[in-house]
Every structure is written in C-alpha cells, then in structure tokens.
Amino acid sequence: MIVTLNNGVKMPQLGLGVWRVEEGSQVVDSVKTALEVGYRHIDTAAIYGNEAGVGEAIKQSGVPREEIFVTTKVWNSDQGYEETLKAFETSLSKLGLDYVDLYLVHWPVPERDLYVDTYKALEKLYADGRVRAIGVSNFPIEFLEKLLSETSVVPVVNQVECHPRLAQHELREFCAKHNIILEAWSPLMQGGDILTNEDILSIASKHGKTAAQVIIRWHLQIGNIVIPKSITPSRIKENFDVFDFELTQDDMAQIHALNQDKRVGPDPAVMNSY
User: Model's pTM, two decimal places?
Assistant: First the structure.
C-alpha cells in the first residue's frame, strides 16, 4: 500500500522501524530480511546509532536504491539551523546514500525552542534536492501551529506514538486538515497490554491472524503510516502479511473503543532530553 504525500512523493504505508536495533549484523540482517520479504520503507534516526548498518543492508540487498524509501531524523542536541545542516551531512555519510527520502525533526524540545530554525534547515535541504520530503516527529498541535505559521513547507508527516490505547484522534484530525499524514511509532504499544487484549485476540481469531497483524491492519485502514520494529525474521514477515484481509466496521469500532489516551513513551510537550 502506497500513500501520496502532500508534495506528490509516494511513500510505502508499511515500513520497518529500527529503534533499539543494534548497529552491525543485527540491523544489517533485519533490514535485509525486511527487503527480501517485500518491505520498501526503512525508518531510522541519528540517535539510533545504526544508520551505517541500514545503509550497508540496502547496499547488500541488491534492491535498487530508488525503490527503497529511507527516513532518518535530526536529534535534539543537533537542533539549530547550521547544526542541523551538519547533522544531515553526517547522517547521509553514515547511510552511504546520495539523498534521503524523508528527513524529520525528531522532537520539538520546547526547552530549547529551536525547532523552527531546525525545520528551516530542512526546508533548505528540500529546496536543494538533498531530501525528497520533510516532516516532524512527536509534535503536538500547539507546536505544529507555530511551525505552520513561521515556515513555508507543510510537513508531509508527523511521526508520533500511536496505537489502540493512544489513538491520537484530535491530532489526527488536525493533521488531516493540513494534509499531514500521521505516522505511528510504537504501533503495537511496546511494553503495553494491547497484544493480549481479549477484544484484539477475538478479532484476530475470527480472521485467522495474530494480534499484531490486526493492529497493523487497523493502522493501515485508518490511514496511518506504520513502522513496526522487529529483529526476528518470522515476526518481520508476519508484520508484513497484512494485505490479504480487511477489518470490518464492527472490528474497527471495537478497536477504536480501546483508546485510553495512554502513552508508553515520553510526553513531547515536556520531553527535553538532549
């Protein structure tokens, strides 16, 4: 499944996230497995420390570069206009690529209040053709509003924590109004209870699928871009095997009812780690 971003660039709706995947053979093997299975979207970040392995896996895979959508992100300590431009060159060098498909501001970091200048650096990279699209990650509405009022390129995505316990209804509505697609990290609620929820398990049993497959399908059907992470080959394959069934309206309503606005990750409004 492909989504068309607000600048016309096409992006695979389902990708592999590599947060907490170790640099070296672990990330190389995970990304190569994903590409063999059929994934064409890999999501990394400078802070993950595995950009070089992602690039090596792409190189070893034999899949043409233009067929793979690569996202990376500028970390909090590198925010600021000039600092971001330097950070991008470092990421590009580690990845061993000529361009990045999507470059994101990783967190707004309100304490530093540099995210507008940081995003303006992304605008320059976009104008110069170094990146095909730019966006943000972990931006609540108030920060998006400021960004939209002080910059000229509308972010293509806002990558945020999203899963059935944190459905992000209000944020999704705001993003949709501005042609920004919500992208879900921790889509399976890592460390949460969603994979053992009775309603999810009942829906999974009905469709002959796993709980994880049902949740990934829910994301796809509500229009989210989704990047489940795994280092286990069987799980990487399982997470991609979601295109041969469809959740019913009743299934979707049952899953929507599970929302508790419950986070497993930091609150972006107060997250100031750098």
Answer: 0.96
